[in-house]
TrEMBL record:
Domain (Acyltransferase) ranges: 15-305
Protein name: Acyltransferase family protein
Keyword entries, A-Z: Acyltransferase, Membrane, Transferase, Transmembrane, Transmembrane helix
Membrane-crossing segments per the record: 46-67, 79-100, 112-128, 158-176, 188-211, 231-253, 260-281, 287-305
Keyword Transmembrane: yes
C-alpha cells in the first residue's frame, strides 16, 4: 500500500486523488503538532476546524477506492499485508518508548494507541464493503448506526466508537462515482468550495469554545461527554453533515493537474504512521507554535519522500508473500 488509502492497481494514477491526500496529510500532521498550543483561542479554533474534516476526507477516499473489494483470497491477503501487519508493527513500535523511558511495556493489540486506530477501523470497514453494496439505502443505515452507537459506551477494543461513529464517511465514499468528482472539478465549484471553507472557518471561530474537543475525536459516547442522547444525536448529526460538506469543499479546491507534490500523495501512509514519533519528540522539546507549524509542514513532506519509503518499506508496506500459500488457479 503506497498511500493512506489504497486503490485498485491502475496503469496511470489520477493526480487529483494524490494531491488531495498530500494536502490532507499536511493538515493531519500539523494538527497533531499544534495540539499542545490549543490554550490559545485562535489555535484551538483552527484545530477544531481541521479536525472536522481531515480524517473524514481520508475515510471518504478510502471508501471510494475500496469499491472493488470482494471476499477473495487475493483481497484477504492484501488486507493482512497492508493493514493488519502494519498495525501490529506500529502498535508495538509506539509501545517501545514507554519501555525505554519508564521501564513499562504496555501493549494492548485490541486497543489501538494514538493514531493506529485508523488502520484497525479501515480493516473492519473494508471487510464490511460487500454488505453495504447489497443494501438499498446503505448511507441511511450507516448514519443510523453512527447515531445509535453514540448512545452507548462501547468498548475501547477495536476503536468501536470511532469505527461506528465515522462509518457514514466510508459508506459515502463507496457510493461515489467518478462523475461526482468530475462535478467538483468544475470552475464554479472551485469558487463555491473556497467560499464554503471560508464560511466553515468563520463558524469554527464562533463556536469552537462552546464545543468540547471530544466531539471531534469521535471516541466517547454522549453520556461520557456529558450530554443527553437527544442533544448528543443532534450534535453528531451536525458534525457528520459539516464534515461531509467540508470534505466536498476541500476536494473542490484541490488541483486536478499534476503538481510537485502529486508523487508525495502516493505515499501518505508513511507520513501518517511515522509522524507520531515526530509528535512525541516535539512534545518533549516543547516547541513554540511557529516551529511546531513549520515542523508539521516539513515532516508531512519529508516522510512521503522516496528515501523514507525505501528505508521503511518493510514496516509500512511489508512484502508478505512468504507467509501465504500459493494461490490456486481456476481449473
Amino acid at each position: 500500500m503506497s498511500s493512506l488509502v489504497t486503490a485498485k492497481p491502475v496503469t496511470a494514477r489520477d493526480p487529483f486523488f494524490d494531491n488531495a491526500k498530500y494536502l490532507a496529510i499536511v493538515l493531519v500532521v500539523t494538527g497533531h503538532l499544534i495540539e499542545a498550543h490549543r490554550d490559545a483561542a485562535i489555535v484551538h479554533a483552527l484545530y477544531f476546524y481541521v479536525y472536522l474534516f481531515h480524517m473524514p476526507l481520508f475515510i471518504v477516499l478510502s471508501g471510494y477506492l475500496s469499491r472493488q473489494f470482494t471476499f477473495s483470497a487475493g483481497k484477504a491477503r492484501k488486507l493482512i499485508s497492508t493493514l493488519a501487519v502494519p498495525y501490529l508493527i506500529f502498535e508495538t513500535a509506539y509501545s517501545l518508548p514507554g519501555l525505554i523511558l519508564y521501564g513499562k511495556f504496555n501493549l494492548t493489540l485490541l486497543e489501538p494507541y494514538f493514531l493506529t486506530w485508523f488502520l484497525l477501523s479501515l480493516f473492519l470497514w473494508r471487510l464490511s464493503t460487500p454488505v453495504w453494496q447489497q443494501l438499498r439505502w446503505p448511507l441511511a443505515v450507516a448514519l443510523g448506526l453512527s447515531l445509535l452507537t453514540g448512545m452507548s459506551k462501547l468498548p475501547d477494543e477495536l476503536a468501536m466508537n470511532r469505527t461506528f461513529g465515522l462509518l457514514p464517511f466510508y459508506v459515502l465514499g463507496l457510493m461515489l462515482r467518478p462523475e461526482h468528482f468530475q462535478l467538483l472539478r468544475r470552475p464554479y465549484m472551485r469558487l463555491a468550495g473556497a467560499l464554503t471553507l471560508g464560511v466553515g472557518l468563520a463558524a469554527a471561530l464562533l463556536v469552537h469554545a462552546a464545543v468540547p474537543t471530544e466531539w471531534i475525536r469521535w471516541r466517547l459516547s454522549n453520556s461520557e461527554i456529558g450530554v443527553d442522547d437527544l442533544t448528543g444525536t443532534a450534535i453528531r448529526l451536525g458534525l457528520l453533515v459539516a464534515g461531509a460538506v467540508l470534505v466536498a469543499a476541500f476536494l473542490a479546491i484541490t488541483p486536478a493537474r499534476h503538481t510537485w507534490f502529486s508523487g508525495l500523495g502516493a505515499a501518505t501512509m508513511y507520513a501518517y504512521l511515522l509522524h507520531g514519533f515526530v509528535v512525541k519528540i516535539a512534545e518533549r522539546l516543547e516547541l513554540g507554535l511557529l516551529l511546531s507549524t513549520v515542523l508539521g509542514l516539513v515532516a508531512a513532506t519529508v516522510l512521503c519522500t522516496p528515501p523514507v519509503r525505501k528505508l521503511l518499506h518493510w514496516a509500512v508496506e511489508p512484502r508478505m508473500s512468504w507467509a501465504f500459500t500459493p494461490l490456486r488457479r481456476p481449473a
